[in-house]
Amino acid sequence: MNYQNLVNGEWKDSENTITIYSPINGEEIGTVPAMSREEVDFAMESARKALPAWRALSAVERAAYLNKAADILERDKDKIGENLAKEVAKGIKAAISEVVRTADLIRYAAEEGLRITGEFVNGGGFEAGSKRKCGVVKREPVGVVLAIAPFNYPVNLSASKIAPALIGGNVVIFKPPTQGSISGLLLTQVFAEAGIPAGVFNSVTGKGSEIGDYLIEHEEVNFINFTGSTPIGKKIGKLAGMRPIMLELGGKDAGIVLEDADLEKAAKDIVAGAFSYSGQRCTAIKRVLVMDSVADKLADLIKAQVEKLTVGDPFDNADITTVIDTPSADFIEGLIKDAQEKGAKALTTVKREKNLIWPVVFDNVTTDMRIAWEEPFGPVLPIIRVNSVDEAIEIANKSEYGLQSAVFTKNFPLAFEIAEKLEVGTVHINNKTQRGPDSFPFLGIKGSGAGVQGLKYSIESMTRVKSIVFDI
């Protein structure tokens, strides 16, 4: 199919197109428009013109559109899920689950938007006469939100930007990932069918070389919400200038395993966290820091769990499927070869067929190996043996990233002490690293991002405070 962009309430083609192929087998799925800068300008102008009427609606009125979109999305879960599986090589069951979870996310965003209220502030006694002053503090939309989504969750991580922006009274320019753009446009169709007013939601697709920086620097954009790689995020930070941004970037999440941990549970959680969607998740466990005294047993347990994983076709619900493209596969293979050359012990089969990489667990990984520090975004898990809690914390914090970590121990006071020292946005105790629930704050520090997500926090981030002061 030839897919179109929604601009100012109309479906539009562009002179040029981009062909989308499935990473599973190279099958052509369809084409999307390669928009020009002039077409981007028109989308931006349309969004700006639609803003006054949209922000003038009550939160209840805006929520009605979101709830209708959620119902349509759930109705079409099989169709959208099937395309998602083809386009990003995600297991079909997980793909459909992503669509259903997204419908729930949109509904929750609609409800949360009703709870974002202002406040009335009485003056204090800081200076003479100030007690007569009162303030009405309200939240207003920031304006035009540019939402840029990643390939790994092209429906869910798109909606996690779009829904909070819309319920907050903003208008949206939505840039789906190139690989994942058809899934993004199917989500766009859902909002269009829900009756979203013209110009409130506009989609843009195109080549990064033509419109990438242009979108970021566009004078109509008031807020940039991006999920993707750390290098691109850093570039966006520079191009954005003084405009507010929200960045969800890379990670090198550590799973720290102490001597008293339930090793069977730790192994299951670590493998689930490391290899879900072939490890192509920012919150995947990407290294294990285990006390040397229990490392042999944990390594055996992890190996046994990994050997249960299936490898193959997403439509067979394989656990491990092809990674997104050849450059990604080449990068992962480079990390694997570096670890092998420097003496890491492979506990599982090292095998690659085109872009399909079998899950690899390395034991005896040392800090001079690339895999100890670099994010593979693929099915590779290094085990690093440590001799103390302090050593584990030191290695974990030495990373350029600061997204999440996990601590496995039965000693909760110690777990909280470790959590306080870890330089990350979230610490999970006795569980894998993960994004949800969506009601929780989600953030990264250092090279892992800027700003706080989670539906309540995203709405707050994409609205600004205005204070109106008067005397009584």
UniProtKB/TrEMBL annotation:
Its EC number is 1.2.1.9. The active site is at 248. GO terms for molecular function: glyceraldehyde-3-phosphate dehydrogenase (NADP+) (non-phosphorylating) activity; lactaldehyde dehydrogenase (NAD+) activity. It is an enzyme of class 1 (oxidoreductase). Keywords: NADP, Oxidoreductase. Gene3D superfamilies: Aldehyde Dehydrogenase, Chain A, domain 1 (3.40.605.10), Aldehyde Dehydrogenase, Chain A, domain 2 (3.40.309.10). The keyword Calcium does not apply. It comes from the Bacteria. It catalyses: D-glyceraldehyde 3-phosphate + NADP(+) + H2O = (2R)-3-phosphoglycerate + NADPH + 2 H(+). Residues 11-468 form the Aldehyde dehydrogenase domain. Belongs to the aldehyde dehydrogenase family. This is NADP-dependent glyceraldehyde-3-phosphate dehydrogenase. It comes from Leptotrichia buccalis (strain ATCC 14201 / DSM 1135 / JCM 12969 / NCTC 10249 / C-1013-b). The lineage of its organism: Bacteria, Fusobacteriati, Fusobacteriota, Fusobacteriia, Fusobacteriales.
